Amino acid sequence: VSTQSTGGNDSCEIPSVFGSSLFNCYSSYHPDEELSTVLPFSNVYSDTSSTASCRLYNPQLLTRPYAGYLANYGAGGYEQLLSRNKVVSSYILSDLQYNGWVDRATRVLFLDFTVYNVNINQFAVVKLVAEFLPTGGLLTSYDVLVQKLLRYVTTTDKVVFGFEIVLVLFVLYYIVEEGMEVVLFRMRYFLDVWNVLDTIIIVQILIGFGISLYRTTTIEGLIKDSETERDTFISFENIAYYETVYNDNAAICLFIAWMKVFKFINITKTMRYFSTTLARCCKDILSFSLMFLIVFFAFAQLGQLLFGTVNRDFSTFLDSTYTLFRIILGDFDFLALEQARNFLGPVFFISYIFLVFFILLNMFLAIINDTYSAVKEELDGEEEVTEFGEYMRRRIGALLRLCGRKEREEEEILEDPEKSGARVEIELPERGGMSAPPPPRSDDEESVDSMFEDSEQRPTARNLRTQETLSSYPPWDIQSMERVPAYQRGPSYEEFKILARRVDRNDDAMGSVISKIDAVLGKLELLEKSYNTGIFPVVEEGDFPEGIEDEQTIHIPDETNRSDGWT
After folding, report:
1. Crossing angle between the packed helical segments 361-380 and 282-307, to the nearest 10 degrees
2. Listed range (144-158, 488-502, 503-517, 520-534) with the worst mean pLDDT
3. The pairing of beta strand 2-5 with beta strand 106-117
């Protein structure tokens, strides 16, 4: 049992007109005015040792600060340990009553205890609260925290523990990955909302892991202390509180993880309507929210001033805002407003419904409706884009590269560039031409070409020359470049590697083609000189140009009969 009291009987000022008739004044609770003196105490029914602590002020009790109806109470106060024996506890309570341990200066009384149900493996940390009003009234409340503090008992619990270990390993991997991305992109990394959500999820998982480690290492010690030190109060309130934080943190983390589904929501046009509509109408909604809050808070403060003294729903500004939100949803008590103010009550209600419900709420719906109509009209004119399929294609391609398939293909191409079919078609003016089939193209190269076709979402080829130290990007940057918005990142490291390989293959192919062209041009020049001089060289076996067999005849011009052409 613990209590907190305000100052003495002079903790508040007595008006001068009542100075001759009123001598005691006890104000409301405030931490700075809390009583901390030694209380006079005499034992009548119980042993002196059992009530030694109730006279001394303890600035840090074993319980946590508590937020009550009347005030927020600190962690200090006077405490008294009750015995597990009912008779001894009754004697202690009688002595406390005899010595006036709870008097007019007392502002709150706490009764703390913990019970455990072995049938369901649940702890219940109970706090019974009695708050004393300065007017002499009493408000009672309670706070019960039911938690599973022994987490790994059954086989199912141990399986869950195994999954938790796997989760921690994944988180450690993603910490390294995200850390590398932060080092590479610095503050640009946080410009993408999905990267921010990833960071929040990682931080929340680490917080949950820390709380779980604290709970596991602490609970067994508390249980042993409660069994060995039976005359000492062992508080489970802190560990139950952190378990509540753990559950809340897990709930928020799960919610954010579900929100990340919107990252892959652009599978079809219908699913893109929602995300695009929200993105388009954000500015309009923010502008509307400012106007709405001005009107809403004006009505909230008006309701507090009009009905706060007679209606608990408007007793504080916060309660008034909650009540007005409930009115928007159709939950209201018109009769209570009318009884509180016969004329102003109905006027307040009708004006609020007219301005907020009929006008502002419909304006909010109109903003969303107009934006949705514009987005639907725009998306209906576009081709179907399946970004999820593209994402899966990239992931499968990365898996194949990891298995070494692409590395072997690249090694073969580097050893023999002609195997890739990288030949170039060159036209010779007035002398015909030589052509070759286009080189086979991989899926990755097709994706690179499509990158340059979309000028709105992808960088142009000119941007490649503006990328600083792009060739030094490490291999792990493949995924991180995909996380950054397209309009900020330019080509990825993988795309740059593909372009570099294509340039190298084209250079090799061009060198081979140019050497063959030089050889052909040399032979043509030799034939031209022979034509002018009339002396023709003997062509030996192996010197014939490609496409002419040794058995075939080479036709030369006949000077005696130019009209016959070649003979």
Report:
1. 170
2. 488-502
3. antiparallel
